[in-house]
Amino acid sequence: MSKAARERSARERLAAERKRQAAREKQRRLLTIVLGSVVAVAVIVVATVLIVDQQRKNGRAEAHKGPLAPLSRQADGSIVMAKAGVTKPELEIFEDFQCPVCKQFEDATSKTVQELALQGKVKVVYRPFHLFGGQPDPVRSNSLRSAEAALCVPADKWISYHDALFKFQPAEGQKGFSPDDLVKWGKDVGVTDPNFEKCVRDGQKKSTVDAMTKYAFQDRGVQGTPTVFLDGKKLDQEQFMNPAGLRVSIDAARAAGKK
Predict the structure, then answer these.
(1) Is the pTM value of this prediction over 0.90?
(2) Closest by CA position to 82, among listed 112, 125, 141, 50
(3) Torsion sign across C-alpha atoms 77, 86, 92, 245
């Protein structure tokens, strides 16, 4: 092989090696970028979870803003929200504060329910109970403590406290609704009754919760939550899980009642 051929061959080998090195460097940079992006996303996700969790633990409950129909507590522990003289149609809401679907229902339709009650178009009856009595802790105890605490709250603070319980609902399987938090949220929304804290910490409303739970299961045949009745007729989820469907159902019940 001539000297010129040898030099050309060497240059070609060098060029090929440089090309391979460049390709390897490109792959290395690409891998670094991908790994960096994955790490960044993971950091953001973890940070978001920690922030939300911290807000849930240390968050402040807020008093409801805006007008509401009058609220009153019945002898059985249920809460009625209705304008004076409105008795029909009657919307009954059976719920458990540990129930994730109940939270979805409240997030989606609570404003509509409050608005219709304020307009005198419906009488609303809230019936909290202890759905998860047969579940292991912490689900069972979360469910019970929250229901008991809700019954310790004066009727005029019901909506504010009710909303706070769903706002700070612990994830399934996580311990939550501690007595300290339950007391704090009551004070946050304006509960001033000196007996409120003792009522919460001593579980003074357990017998009422037990009676409401028995009523839900045995008398009304409730098997899960949320369960919603309109004038005694059980609604399908399609009828109550969205504002439009709920309005249609209530309007139809009002029209039927006028015939």
Answers:
(1) no
(2) 125
(3) negative
